[in-house]
Structure prediction request, 445 residues.
Amino acid sequence: MALTGVEIFKLLPKTNCKKCGQPTCLAFAMKLAQRQASIDQCPDVSEEAKQKLGEASAPPIRPITLGTGARAVKIGEETVLFRHEKKFVNPCAISVKISDNLSQADAGKVIAGIMESEIDRVGQKLRVDAAFLSNDSGDASKLAALASLVASKAPELPVIISTTSPDAAEAALKPFAGKNAVLYGANKDNLEAMAQKAKDAKAALAIAASSLDEAAELTEKAKAIVPDLIMDSGARKAGEMLRDNTYVRRAAIKKGFKPLGYPVINFVGRGDSMLETVVAVLSVTKYASIIVLDHLEKWQSLALFSLRQNIYTDPQVPMQVQQNIYKVGDPGPKAPFLITTNFSLTYFIVSGEVENSKVPCRLAVLDSEGLSVLTAWAAGKFTASKIAQFIKESGIEAEIENKELIIPGYVAILSGAIEDKLEGWKITVGPREANGLPAFLKSRA
Prediction:
């Protein structure tokens, strides 16, 4: 069980030196108890206390990083059962299976599909995170050839190598040595050998168990060789996944049961794409850290990426778009120039209606801390001063010929004040509702 703030305080130096950034040792102890600080921030703590406190401040679900570089993905590190309690920390990694029974050409198409899966939503880049290389043939040379193909075509793509053969694992892991790959397929018969192969390649090890009891037993044995572990309880039906994923999360977070304190991998592949997506939705919402799909169509990726993004946002902070000036279509120097707030729903609605108008535009999105137009105006987040400052600092004047800014109709009251602060600009009041934008923009084209 995790230590309380008072119990942690008893193990600290009690000097109130402020070297940790907190005013007192008690305040630092409370931060540690809430997992909002690291024991490494205290330079004077003893090694004995550091060992105890390091364990106490560690998240109940071990954090693991897949891959390296720009495509690296962090999983695990979760601290709560329910999203409204705090927030889920690291979004689950979505991976697509590539069988070594495929020809090089067909495997290349799957790899290309993974690399081209990226979409932009609310200013965030969403994509397939990893490739799951499956040794369906049972032939070590075929798996090694597939691994080499992936390494050559997508060198930064995180990979999960799936095999029960230690020799096949060794050959397939070679192109990804030191790249935080995952080796899946360790079971009660090959555990030590597979753990050693993962250790040699500096990879994480995924346990393929037949039950939660077996998973807990195998993680206890494997952690002495490889600390970074991932678990598969053997559940394949949706109900079984829900049950096991919930047991794992509750055992780790509520009971502090270390043998189950690792990320979970779910296999949701189905012959029917719709059913596969439904099961994947279950895994996204209920605690899977890695989800393995048999295939991924465009409509599936849009649904799953959007759901994952929503689930892994902070419920206490409105979903926001990054402050910027976005282009809708291919606007020229005389294209209309509009402004709105960075509340994601507002952005989606406004940009969607602008796109429907078929009139290329520039859309300025002002940081209003995720509030809608009227709410931001009432809260002093969408004011003439802030709008004028944003426009001046954006450098947009060098890109456009007509210094005209179209503001939302609901804040028409701001037009005069904005004109006073933006010398040489014309402020035009647009429609009150976004659905009026297409007709408004077409009438000016």
In short: The radius of gyration is 26 Å. The first strand starts at residue 64 and ends at 66. Residues 384 and 417 are 6 Å apart (CA to CA). The domain at 5-57 is CATH 1.10.15.40 (3-methyladenine DNA Glycosylase II; Chain A, domain 3).
